[in-house]
Amino acid sequence: MKYFLLACTFLLLTNPTIAQEFEPIFNGKDLSGWTIHGTEHWYVEDGELVCESGPDKEYGYLTTDKTYKNFVLSLDFKQESNGNSGVFIRSSVEGTKIEGWQVEVAPLGSHTGGIYESYGRGWLKKPSPEDEKALKPGEWNHMVIRVEGDKVTSWLNDKKMVALEDQKIGQATGSIALQIHSATEGNEVKVRWKNLHIKVLD
């Protein structure tokens, strides 16, 4: 019994999806509280947030009007067509150039859950090939991102993907941003999002 209680306590302390009180950052009706950057399409359909390639088929972003430093973000995504996207933390956007760190959302084998620094150092940490198999292509996937101080940890479908400690990330504050990747003709991007909730830690 003693070891069972210790195990339960460990789960409560380390799993951000347990015993946490989250608030929605997407109301399921419109894009209130968010700003579109670029010409790609962002809209609400059946209570879900949808992004898909627009006329320029370039990078686009949807950023929160609020900024966040330490938080746990919980969301669901489903990749349709080419599902290349991502979730940025502590980010800022000028035009369609973003500064910040992306937790990758991409097709199978393209490092979903890994952490990438745009216009900077590139890949900071990728999940193992075995862990990447947690992605369910064409189905709803659950992602959790915990950002606290210098530390960023990602989970995909309850599988821990990466944990990174980085001083540069620790110094930043900024928006949460959803990305739509650039596309080629006949390979447009489309991703659906829902259940976007946040728990502020500071």
UniProtKB/TrEMBL annotation:
Q: Which domain of life is it from?
A: Bacteria
Pfam families from the UniProt entry: 3keto-disac_hyd
Q: Kindly state which keywords UniProt assigns to this record, in alphabetical order.
A: Signal
Record's signal peptide = 1-19
Q: Cite the InterPro entries for this sequence.
A: AL/BT2_dom (IPR010496)
Q: Which residues form the 3-keto-alpha-glucoside-1,2-lyase/3-keto-2-hydroxy-glucal hydratase domain?
A: 22-199
The protein, known as:
DUF1080 domain-containing protein
